[in-house]
Amino acid sequence: MTAEAIGRGAPVDRLSCYIRTLNEATRIERVVLAAKAVAAEVVVVDSGSTDETVAIAEAAGARVVHQPWLGNGPQKRVGEEACSHDWLLDLDADEVVSPELADEVRALFANGEPTRSVHRLKLVTVPPFGEPWHDFYLAWRAKLYDRRQHRMPDHRAWDQLQLDAGTVVGRLGGAIDHHAFRDLAHVMEKLNKVSTNRARDGRLKPFPVVALRVVAALPVYFFKHYVLRGLWRGGLYGFAFAGTQAIGRWLRDAKMLEMHLWRRAER
């Protein structure tokens, strides 16, 4: 697969893309090639891969920066600093820019820099079974932005732009295909890691709040994912996936409870 086969035009000459990686040999080539179809430069920030991630990324045309893991936000900041251009596209190693989105980005820059300094992009989950979830469980992320106006947070747990109130945000309708998980075991592995990081590095909530959530919040989390975010449309697999998402969110509460109990035991 080549960048030309993915894209339908020239990349934007004032746009860089950065991608964080760790042992992503099975996915990084497609991600880099799709990014090269829209961005003039692709920078991979590798945090110590022991597989062929680095070699594959370089062969696909990316420039690799080696950086031991600093945390979610700081690692993205390394990517921001490593890029040559001020306009940035933030991708994870499981996110593939669709040809439709690439066309939209090219059109956005056709007459110079965009008037809005940040744009939200649509993440479409691609499950391991069945069709992509184009019409439900969508996520909108501020991933295309001018680093002169916005920077990723310098926070170990958080890695999304925190926009000031009143910021006018653009929105593009083309998809980023999000190959987020191989199977439910992979989902739980990721959620376990994320819940640990956010419990440890986030603000510890008061004990009564944590206790209430541990006891009562799990059904609420499931309702949010299955009903409000539309996973009921994903059939039986959507039901199972909603269960993993609810448990993953609840794990953060349970781990905060454990932190409170450890603190009490140390007194």
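That was protein one. Protein two is written in the same sequence-then-structure order:
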Amino acid sequence: MKKAIEFHANGKLLITGEYLVLVGAIALAMPVRFGQKLIARETSRDMIDWVSSTGKVPWFSAAFEPASLKILDADKKNVAVELRKVLAAARRLNPEFLNGAGGWQARVTANYPLEWGLGSSATLYHLVAAWAGVPVFDLFRLLSDGSGYDIACAGRQDLLFYQLRKGRPDITTVAPGEALRESAYFVYQGNKQDSNKEVASFLLNRNYSEIDLVAVSQLSASICCSDSSDELIRLVNEHEYILSTILKRDPVARRFPAFP
């Protein structure tokens, strides 16, 4: 068996600009230490042997025929179908990818529970793009209508501003103010959403204005640079009010009235 090659991708949190980042607002996003890694080895077997795990616990396995990427075996057929789309898209960009003699063993490991929603799809795209030697945003555009902020986070370590300009990403690394560094906490609420459905619903309804885009973009900058917890709370509440009005949902804070 040949020497393994290894790739890493970071998960993400979107702090501001939820949904509006799809239509040009500046969003504030943060790569996190949780993510996924891919270890791939060439083998003499005529098969792509794939296993995905959370920690040391496998949750998905499949086998593909290298030349056609036909699914030979899978314990979760729906996941295998989606993974095949990713591998096939990478091959469209690089026809040599996984197309030589022999096969491959691929092991993908996440160091966090996938239900936290930290970007398992985006990190997978990043890993496969790195493995295939293709531009990750080109691969992403073949597979998703999302904004791509999570793709930007997958290959970076620092807080960033993210904006789509004529469909192309504009990414700027930024430093957080004291309030984000010292007074911000993130909690998984146990209700991960289906991103594709949520995005489709937002784009269909288009319940926003240019004023909203400007306001949220300005709030992204202010929240990033805020130096006091009181100011951060005020800015986040303002951001939540705009988004709750657009999405016609109660602000998250309303569910936790005793917590600022």
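The chain has a mean pLDDT of 94. Keep this in mind for the problem set.
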